[in-house]
Amino acid sequence: MSLYIGREASKLWKRICAETTTEINLLADNWKYVLGGLIFQYIHGLAARGVHYLHRPGPTLQDVGFFLLPELGQDKAYISEMVFTCVFLSFVAWTFHPFIFKSKKVYTVLVWCRVLAFLVASQILRIITFYSTQLPGPNYHCREGSKLARLPHPQSAFEVLLINFPRGITHGCGDLIFSSHMIFTLVFVLTYQKYGTKRCIKQIGWLIAVVLSFLIIASRKHYSVDVVVAWYTVNLVVFFLDKKLPELPDRTASLLLPLSTKDKDSKTKEENHKLLNGNSVDPADWRQRTQVNGKILDDANLVHADATAMNGA
């Protein structure tokens, strides 16, 4: 038993080392995209912090979701955050599964390049939207009478740049349309929908996204319009960007990295030779073709054709 465990642990370690080498090479080629996406996450948080200074509390707006869904209350507002945290951590764990499992379909670095592109595009639209119109926040800490509903003018730029992390992220006001939680959730679900392999997990992912939408509204963290706009905006962003971005290589078809430019040129020349010879077999099987009665025959069939012609003469 101990021998089996040791052997499997050795295989796992070799797999992790090999995958790490592969991912480091990919990161060396794509680090600009990853770094740019991560930096924009800070910019997005900075923008959300900035709009909090502009927020003015007021009466909660009329909302059909507030009429249909019972209010959870402050003591149960954590439920939506727990669900979102589970979604976030589950997706992150899935993107790193190539380091552990033998069956792997994607590369971790390339998946995150794609995910960050979706997030950045959606967050740019979100920043433009919530700076265009500031609505009175429906959340408890954003209502009239709360000390956090209005922020005093910052004493220095350093105070703004720090964004009061993490409290400034979890207790923001004014960044309503559209929901940031739904941006992340939908991007994760849509990504797994395309690159995941378990059908049941895909179905569970969509179900959780719907449940989380209701929980966000019931927690009074967002208006219904914030969630509705997120649903169609994120789906459209992913739909159009997915067509523009280069497709990820499928690791189930090949365990190798995408071909380099030199390899692609060599492969193209090889395919052209095949086409010129009129076949699609391995280069080792190339044979001269001869045309008889309008048909292309190889050397073996040519002998048979000559014999038939002599018998018929």
Could you explain how this protein is built, in words?
The chain has 11 helices and 2 strands. It has a two-stranded antiparallel sheet. The protein has helices at residues 2-54, 64-68, 78-95, 108-132, 157-161, 167-170, 180-195, 199-218, 224-244, 261-276, 299-311, and strands at 290-292, 295-297. The protein has 313 residues and is mostly helical. Helix content is 63%, strand content 2%. It is globular and about 65 Å long. Pfam families: PAP2_C. It comes from Dovyalis caffra.
Short descriptors:
313 residues; two-stranded antiparallel sheet; sphingolipid metabolism; inositol phosphoceramide synthase activity; mainly alpha
Question: Summary?
Answer:
The chain crosses the membrane at residues 77-97, 109-131, 176-193, 200-217, 223-241. With 313 residues, the protein is mainly α. The protein has helices spanning 2-54, 64-68, 78-95, 108-132, 157-161, 167-170, 180-195, 199-218, 224-244, 261-276, 299-311; strands at 290-292, 295-297.
Alpha-carbon distance between the two ends:
78 Å
- Order of strands across the biggest sheet? 1-2
Can you tell me the overall shape? globular
**Average pLDDT:** 82
What is the helix content? 55-70%
Order of helices and strands: HHHHHHHHHHEEH
The proportion of residues in beta strands is: under 5%
Quickly give the structural class: mainly alpha
Which regions have little confidence, pLDDT < 50, spanning 5+ residues?
Answer: 255-260, 280-313
Number of strands: 2
Rounded to an integer, what's the Rg over CA atoms?
29 Å
Biggest beta sheet summary:
2 strands, antiparallel
Total helices: the number is: 11
Subcellular location: Membrane
InterPro entries: Sphingomyelin_synth-like (IPR045221), Sphingomyelin_synth-like_dom (IPR025749)
GO molecular function, one term: inositol phosphoceramide synthase activity
Family: Belongs to the sphingomyelin synthase family.
